[in-house]
């Protein structure tokens, strides 16, 4: 079964893709929804240059689609239909774990494009998942987080110890509720680690971000 991955650049979409491949599915293309100017990803604030590096390390094409929040759904469905034809797709893979409204939306947009929504991580224990990701070779860095965590966590590599520390602070170790987002630097799907540009840290509207230099 050929599939497109809804690729955030972070650990969950990466591990979902790894799981789908392990189940015998075949990846054909990555899809990321960008902000209006097409330079930074909407979900994780990653520049297109970093996303392209990840795609190149996997030997897969990347579709970075600019969208506003207003036309996000319509553009997502349109690009799924286009990719379905272009790559003879049968499914789309998503990294959501247990947010029902996300799954409902993914089922809806995939149905509109006549694709099957596959969620390999669905309803698995979050701490177990983080540990599995790390044990399976995903090297991932925190690139944004809420104020409960603060700027000191930006740029940190996620480890089992750090995940436990977050959990003890009442923070979801997967960041499933948006507490933090990650960037995959290396994993078994990559031919090698990506190279990161210099960055600075900022706090804006109750959230902390890494800002990458061009």
Automatic annotation (TrEMBL):
CDD domains per the UniProt record, alphabetical: AANH_PF0828-like
UniProt-recorded Gene Ontology molecular function terms: diphthine-ammonia ligase activity
Record SUPFAM superfamilies: Adenine nucleotide alpha hydrolases-like
Name of protein: Uncharacterized protein (TIGR00290 family)
Top-level taxon: Bacteria
Pfam families, alphabetized: Diphthami_syn_2
Diphthamide synthase domain boundaries: 3-210
GO process terms (BP): protein histidyl modification to diphthamide
């Amino acid at each position: 079964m050929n599939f497109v991955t809804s690729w955030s650049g972070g650990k969950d979409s990466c591990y979902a893709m790894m799981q789908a491949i392990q189940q015998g599915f075949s990846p054909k293309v990555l899809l990321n929804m960008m902000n209006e100017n097409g330079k930074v990803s909407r979900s994780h604030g990653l520049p297109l240059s970093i996303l392209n590096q990840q795609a190149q390390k996997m030997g897969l094409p990347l579709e970075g689609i600019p969208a506003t929040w207003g036309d996000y759904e319509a553009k997502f469905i349109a690009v799924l239909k286009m990719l379905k034809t272009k790559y003879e797709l049968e499914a789309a893979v998503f990294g959501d774990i247990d947010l029902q409204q996300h799954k409902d939306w993914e089922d809806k947009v995939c149905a509109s494009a006549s694709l099957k929504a596959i969620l390999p991580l669905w309803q698995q224990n979050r701490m177990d998942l983080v540990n599995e990701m790390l044990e399976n070779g995903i090297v991932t860095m925190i690139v944004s987080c809420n104020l409960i965590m603060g700027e000191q966590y930006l740029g940190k590599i996620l480890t089992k110890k750090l995940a436990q520390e977050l959990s003890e602070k009442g923070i979801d170790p997967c960041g499933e509720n948006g507490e933090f987002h990650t960037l995959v630097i290396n994993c078994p799907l990559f031919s090698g680690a990506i190279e990161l540009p210099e960055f600075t840290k900022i706090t804006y509207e109750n959230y902390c971000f890494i800002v990458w230099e061009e």
